Automatic annotation (TrEMBL):
Transmembrane segments: 21-43
Guanylate cyclase domain mapped to chain residues: 600-724
Keywords (A to Z) from UniProt: Membrane, Transmembrane, Transmembrane helix
Claim: Lyase is one of the keywords in the record: no
A matching Pfam family: Guanylate_cyc
Listed name of the protein: GAF domain-containing protein
InterPro entries documented for this protein: A/G_cyclase, GAF, GAF-like_dom_sf, Nucleotide_cyclase, Sensor-like_sf
Top-rank lineage group of the source organism: Bacteria
Entries under CDD domains matching the protein: CHD, PDC2_MCP_like
Length: 772
């Protein structure tokens, strides 16, 4: 147990908590008490002022409501009182002067009362006379329905302001009968004033409402006297009322249709000049809709409400002498309580000044104590990072064979991921001519697995190599979006799903000249300035290791494995396409073989099953078979077997491990790939085939009685076939990680990702590119 793991039972941890409470808690608590006190006083003052303002507002709106109701009643009095006066005036006029009396009364009222649009008088026999404003001038128009032999006609007289006849017109009445009109039918059988629904007056295109009353003349005829009142002028009158800064009024009839109100022209246009569609719109008149709903439930009076997160005061009052008309008034509460809000805002500003001063004083006190805590924490973090880097360097220093290029230096990438928190760390060695990078080791911290041996070419990644040539440590947040690292992300990082990249070039000396000998890459690492020093130390160690790599690799490239023992093996026998195993030292292989190399070559159907010209394919197939036999003899393969579209080649089926088996099979794979490419291309056939390899233990033995046939089975054979089936491109040699580990020093590979095999689990796949 280390000393930092020992717990002292006599230590008091509550001292630190009490100190933090005194340093931070007390000042914060004092500020909160000041805030609560000021907030409580301000809220109480605001509520008291608001209640007084609202009470005053309701009284004011009640007075405004009475004023509006009185003015609207006066506006409509020309129809109600005027109708009563006209009823008495016309009913007592002598029959001979009834027509002239109506015209005289109507003309006088039209000149004096602007809201009156026209007057009607109709009797029970269908007689009809009309006086209205001249739509084309300032005079009046007198209209009378006359009967002729050809039918009814309208006789029009147009008079100027002094009553002089200007012109006359006549036009067909088109069987017009006033007795079927609503204004006549609604009033003929009652003594009170009857109001009809709003209509569009044809001559002026204005919306009017008609008040009609019945009367009986001295001649005994029942008549109806009607008055048209302009609703447009009534709406202009309502718009002119100054209820408040944003208050408005509207008048609805008993069925909820709009009679007059704010923006009346827009209401008419929205209804398409159809009075039956002139109702409240919830989208644009939601406040009025809310007051009208409350009025229908609670009746007339004041109705405060909230709409769209705003407070409103609504009033509703019915109009006398109408068929249930109601005046609705809506005003925002802020129009009347704004001065209270302004007073509260000023109080709040003064309170804020006091609070700011208190916060500053408390903050200065807390800041002084917290700065000490932050400095101590920074020292602790820095010490922990220093200890981690020291432990990592110590682990690197004690690793055996660190500078021996024949040994793998896995500790370097492992410690890099631990110190920097990277997902993956890789060591890349630059080839002598600077045209390629070879991955010496790639460590994935998530799966704790090592890989390497794949190659990056300068030709394919020109921008990335230029970044290395600059020689500076570079950190890129999104490697795929940066043109300098996009190719590296696509080739190396995309399969792992990493995003950020840190690049640390490795400098070394060659013939007394400093140059880039490799690069250190970190994927998804913490990018912090203090990591640079550690990276430079690791890169210096790696540079020393790389300095002796070139000579060893060159010697390994030239020195092929000793294949003398394999050369002593007898040549294979070829019996009916099943290639029987040779005798090795007068002993037929039987049982478990520790190091068998298996290669499977798969040809696609267009090559092997083409029915276009079989005669031309047979010589090609025969030529391929001959070449396969030559290659098998040249590299002393153990056996070759043809199975349908597949060729299965084996090497190393011996009791003792054959270290040259996987090398000889790899050479045979490269030779076979080149031969098949050449033969298929010369025959103008698409070269579609793939090769898979694996290396490991396998079971083998002679089966049957006469003749006995040698067969090999096991996981190595299965994985080799899976590699052939999963190869990405034509002519690709896809190998397992066991082949990669055995040949990584003599051949170039590139990573292909991971694969899953039943009962074998997940493994990594590589593509054999070429010899080094």
């Amino acid at each position: 147990m280390t000393s930092d793991e020992i717990i002292d039972p006599t230590s008091h941890s509550d001292v630190s908590l009490r100190r933090k409470f005194i340093q931070v808690g007390v000042p914060v608590l004092g500020v909160l008490l000041i805030l609560a006190t000021i907030g409580g006083i301000g809220w109480h003052t605001y509520q008291t002022t608001r209640e007084g303002v609202l009470q005053l507002t309701r009284q004011l709106l009640t007075s405004v409501q009475r004023y509006v109701v009185q003015d609207v009643s006066d506006y409509l009095a020309a129809a109600t009182l005027g109708g009563s006066f006209a009823k008495d005036f016309v009913s007592h006029a002598p029959p001979a002067v009834t027509r002239n009396a109506f015209y005289a009364y109507g003309a006088s009222m039209l000149r004096l009362v602007p809201q009156i649009q026209s007057y009607y008088l109709a009797d029970q026999n269908g007689g009809f006379i009309l006086v209205e404003r001249d739509p084309n001038g300032k005079g009046l128009e007198y209209t009378e329905l006359r009967s002729t032999a050809s039918g009814g006609i309208f006789h029009h007289e147009f008079r100027d302001e002094k009553g002089k006849v200007i012109r006359t017109e006549e036009n067909p009445a088109d069987n017009y009968d006033p007795r079927v009109r609503a204004w006549y039918a609604n009033a003929i059988n009652q003594d009170t004033v009857a109001w009809s629904a709003p209509t569009i007056y044809l001559t002026t295109r204005q919306l009017v409402i008609t008040a009609s009353t019945s009367l009986t003349g001295n001649d005994g005829l029942r008549r109806v006297f009607a008055i048209n009142v302009s609703l447009n002028l009534l709406s202009q009158f309502l718009d002119g009322l100054k209820i408040s800064q944003n208050g408005n009024a509207i008048i609805l009839d008993g069925s909820g249709h709009i009679i007059a109100g704010h923006d009346f022209s827009k209401i008419v246009a929205r209804a398409g000049n159809d009075p039956s569609k002139m109702v409240l719109d919830p989208n644009t008149q939601g406040a009025f809709q809310r007051v009208y709903d409350r009025y229908r439930v609670r009746g007339v009076g004041s109705h405060p409400f909230t709409y769209d997160d705003k407070n409103y005061i609504g009033m509703a009052q019915t109009l006398p002498s109408t068929n249930g008309w109601v005046v609705l008034i809506v005003a925002p509460e802020n129009d009347f309580a704004s001065f209270a809000r302004q007073s509260g805002r000023e109080s709040l500003q003064f309170s804020i000044i006091i609070v700011v001063l208190a916060v500053v004083l408390a903050g200065l006190l807390a800041r002084q104590s917290r700065r000490t805590e932050h400095v101590n924490q920074a020292f602790v973090r820095q010490k922990a990072q220093t200890d981690m880097e020291a432990a990592a360097l110590q682990q690197v220093a004690i690793s055996p064979g660190l500078l021996d290029v024949s040994e793998e230096a896995l500790v370097l990438t492992e410690e890099l991921t631990r110190v920097t928190g990277a997902r993956r760390a890789s060591l890349w060695r630059m080839l002598h001519d600077g045209t390629a990078l070879i991955c010496e080791d790639n460590f994935d911290a998530r799966v704790e697995g090592h890989s390497g041996g794949f190659e990056l070419s300068r030709k394919d990644m020109e921008d990335f190599f230029k970044l290395l040539d600059a020689g500076a440590i570079v950190s890129v947040t999104s490697a795929g979006s940066d043109p300098r690292t996009a190719s590296f992300e696509r080739s190396v990082m995309r399969d792992a799903g990493t995003r950020s990249l840190m690049v640390c070039p490795i400098r070394g000396t060659n013939n007394g000249r400093t140059e880039i000998v490799g690069v250190l890459t970190l994927e998804d690492a913490r990018s912090a300035p203090y990591l640079v020093y550690f990276l430079e130390i690791i890169s210096a160690i790696t540079a020393i290791r790389f300095s002796g790599t070139a000579e060893v690799v060159d010697s390994e490239k030239e020195a092929a494995p000793d294949a003398s023992a394999a050369a002593a093996l007898p040549a294979p026998r070829f019996d009916e396409t099943l290639m029987q195993a040779p005798t090795a030292g007068d002993e037929i292989g039987q049982g478990l073989y520790p190091s068998v190399a298996v290669m499977v070559i798969t040809f696609s159907d267009p090559v092997m099953e083409s029915d276009d010209n079989v005669a031309t394919l047979l010589p090609l197939i025969d030529r391929i078979a001959s070449e396969v036999q030559d290659i098998a003899r040249r590299y002393n393969l153990f056996s070759v077997k043809v199975a349908g579209h597949r060729l299965i080649c084996m090497a190393g089926c011996t009791r003792e491990s054959d270290p040259t088996a996987v090398w000889r099979l790899a050479e045979a794979a490269l030779a076979l790939r080149e031969t098949c490419m050449m033969l298929l291309s010369s025959a103008n056939i698409e070269p579609i085939f793939s090769i898979g390899m694996d290396f490991g233990p396998a079971m083998g033995g002679e089966l049957g009685s006469d003749p006995k046939i040698f067969n090999l089975w096991g996981e190595t054979v299965t994985l080799a076939e899976l590699m052939a089936q999963g190869a990405p491109d034509v002519g690709t040699i896809e190998v397992t990680e066991r082949v990669y580990q055995a040949l990584r020093n003599r051949y170039l590979f590139r990573s292909r990702g991971s694969f899953y095999a039943p009962r074998s689990g997940t493994g990594r796949v590589y593509v054999l590119a070429s010899r080094r």
